[in-house]
């Protein structure tokens, strides 16, 4: 029985397992499963293909980045090599530049201002000199004797008269000034052409400078364009003057560096009285709200003081004294009852340290020079050293040397030409500077009296060259060959050379006018000299006429 039940159960179980409702036939579902699998396989293949492309792109990007890095490394390496080469060239260029600069300085010391060649080398004169007839020695000697030499005695008498009167006037000025509050005036000094014996054109004018100093306890502290601080090019040749207390430190007031007592106040920085410093500085002729000396206020004070002094001594003289020129505050004129007059300039100056260089309040100016930067900028004059240099060199020259004669003739010709065609940028100071350069460059024997014609040609050559280059250096500034006997300040010797013709670069109209006037003077030179020459031998006169034709 149990066996039978077991068989029956086994049969039932077998039937149930093989029933189609529980296990469908495989051939009925195969097509549907195959398409689904194929679709999934395609999707998988597509994703794998995209993944492969992404990986290939990343690999390509990595390879490109690697190549770029390698290329950049090569460029950096090349740039380093190039930089090393460039640094070598830069260093080499700097060495070459320094060598050139040293050579330039040596060249300037050895040949301060380039001087013309031989006496008879007319090739360097340029086109302006072609066809120009130079007067010969006899004509020049006659012209100098008849026209110029006779004025020497007149100059000596005029200098003596003016100096005596100026001394008396300054003595009276000291008596009318307050010694405790006003500036202290020293003795006057004569400078310029009248005292160097080369002025030729009338009216004769004596130039006198009057040093002055502040009252105690004040002092002047001077600063020039070459003292270390940077000055613009248009302020070269100028300086400023600061009014300080004698016990004040150069860098500031002593109240900042010392402890003042409870009952002591600083006059410059008092918090109680803020108006006194300004008025005090103005009483000391300073520019408003500064400690810098004002040239305009100085000239105003000087004119008032001179007027007071003249009122005190006018009863002693039989002439009148007046200020003659508005644009030149120190210009004075003596008028005699006969109608004659004598003009002279009395100009206050400030001494630069312990030298004979002076800051001058007002200086005669030409059309070439620019306006003064401000009234606190003072022009420096080296007139005392210029006079001493001429005197020193004159002792080494032959008797009756022609150096002064050359300057007198050239000054006369230029003055006459300017009276015909109008003023130019050239001044007598430029002509004197040319002579100073030639005096230093040429040996003493070249200035013998019989070489007047050759030296005059040298001056014209040199002047024409300077005009062509727009470059004429100041004789003293930057000149390392100034004789030690003069005691010239080293600060100006070591400074950069100062080009007196620099304004020609900025003023083309004035430059053109100056060159035209110079060329016209050359063409008219023989005619101007012949006009003022009498009793010349007939042979010389005929020769000059043939040359001019």
Brief summary:
The protein is an alpha+beta fold and 549 residues long. It has helices at 2-17, 30-110, 137-148, 152-176, 193-196, 276-283, 295-313, 383-394, 403-421, 428-441, 452-469, 490-493, 502-506, 508-531, 538-548, and strands at 184-185, 189-191, 205-213, 218-224, 238-245, 319-323, 331-336, 341-351, 358-360, 378-381.
Short key terms for the protein model shown above:
10-stranded mixed sheet; alpha+beta; 50% helix; 549 residues
Walk me through what this model shows.
The chain is an alpha+beta fold and 549 residues long. It has 15 helices and ten strands. The chain has helices at 2-17, 30-110, 137-148, 152-176, 193-196, 276-283, 295-313, 383-394, 403-421, 428-441, 452-469, 490-493, 502-506, 508-531, 538-548, and strands spanning 184-185, 189-191, 205-213, 218-224, 238-245, 319-323, 331-336, 341-351, 358-360, 378-381. Strands 1, 2, 3, 4, 5, 6, 7, 8, 9 and 10 form a ten-stranded mixed sheet that branches. Helix 10 crosses helix 11 (452-469). The termini are far apart. The relative contact order is 0.11. The model is unreliable at 25-31, 107-112, 116-125, 270-277 and 535-549 (pLDDT under 50). Enhances Ca(2+)-mediated inhibition of inositol 1,4,5-triphosphate receptor (ITPR) Ca(2+) release. Belongs to the ITPRIP family. Residues 1-20 form the signal peptide.
């Amino acid at each position: 029985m149990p066996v039978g039940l077991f068989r029956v159960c086994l049969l039932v179980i077998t039937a149930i397992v093989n029933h189609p409702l529980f296990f469908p036939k495989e051939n009925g579902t195969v097509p549907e499963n195959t398409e689904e699998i194929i679709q999934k396989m395609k999707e998988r293949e597509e994703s794998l293909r995209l993944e492969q492309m992404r990986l290939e792109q990343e690999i390509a990007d990595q390879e490109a980045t690697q190549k770029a890095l390698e290329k950049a490394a090569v460029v950096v390496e090349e740039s380093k090599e190039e930089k090393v080469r460039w640094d070598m060239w830069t260093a080499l260029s700097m060495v070459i530049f320094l060598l050139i600069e040293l050579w330039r300085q040596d060249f300037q010391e050895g040949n301060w201002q380039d001087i013309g060649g031989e006496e008879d080398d007319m090739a360097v004169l340029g086109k302006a000199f072609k066809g120009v007839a130079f007067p010969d020695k006899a004509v020049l000697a006659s012209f100098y004797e008849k026209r110029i030499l006779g004025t020497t005695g007149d100059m000596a008498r005029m200098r003596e008269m003016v100096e005596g009167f100026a001394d008396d006037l300054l003595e009276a000025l000291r008596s009318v000034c307050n010694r405790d509050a006003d500036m202290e005036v020293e003795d006057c000094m004569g400078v310029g052409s009248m005292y160097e014996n080369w002025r030729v054109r009338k009216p004769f004018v004596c130039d006198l400078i009057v040093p002055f100093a502040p009252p105690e306890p004040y002092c002047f502290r001077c600063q020039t364009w070459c003292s270390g601080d940077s000055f613009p090019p248009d302020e070269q040749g100028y300086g400023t003057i600061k009014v300080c207390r004698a016990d004040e430190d150069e860098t500031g007031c002593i109240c900042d560096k010392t402890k003042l007592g409870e009952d002591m106040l600083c006059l410059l920085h008092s918090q109680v009285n803020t108006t006194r410093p300004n008025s005090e500085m103005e009483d000391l002729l300073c520019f408003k709200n500064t400690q810098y000396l004002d040239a305009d206020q100085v000239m105003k004070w000087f004119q008032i003081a001179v007027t007071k002094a003249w009122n005190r001594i006018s009863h002693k003289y039989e002439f009148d004294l007046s200020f003659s020129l508005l644009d030149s505050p120190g210009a004075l004129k003596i008028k005699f009852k006969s109608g004659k007059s004598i003009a002279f300039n009395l100009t206050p100056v400030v001494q630069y340290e312990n030298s004979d260089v002076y800051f001058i309040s007002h200086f005669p100016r030409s059309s070439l020079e620019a306006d003064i930067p401000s009234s606190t900028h003072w022009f420096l004059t080296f007139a005392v050293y210029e006079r001493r240099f001429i005197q020193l060199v004159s002792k080494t020259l032959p008797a009756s040397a022609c150096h002064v004669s050359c300057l007198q003739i050239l000054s006369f010709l230029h003055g006459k030409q300017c009276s015909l065609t109008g003023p130019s940028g050239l001044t007598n100071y430029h002509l004197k500077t040319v002579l100073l350069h030639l005096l230093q460059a040429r040996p003493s024997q070249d200035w013998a009296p019989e070489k007047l014609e050759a030296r005059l040609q040298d001056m014209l050559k040199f002047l024409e060259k300077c005009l062509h280059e727009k470059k004429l250096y100041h004789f003293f500034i930057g000149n390392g060959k100034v004789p030690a006997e003069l005691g010239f300040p080293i600060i100006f010797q070591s400074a950069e050379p100062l080009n007196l013709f620099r304004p020609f670069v900025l003023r083309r109209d004035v430059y053109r006018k100056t060159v035209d006037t110079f060329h016209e003077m050359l063409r008219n030179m023989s005619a101007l000299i012949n006009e003022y020459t009498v009793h010349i031998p007939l042979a010389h006169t005929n020769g000059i006429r043939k040359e001019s034709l």
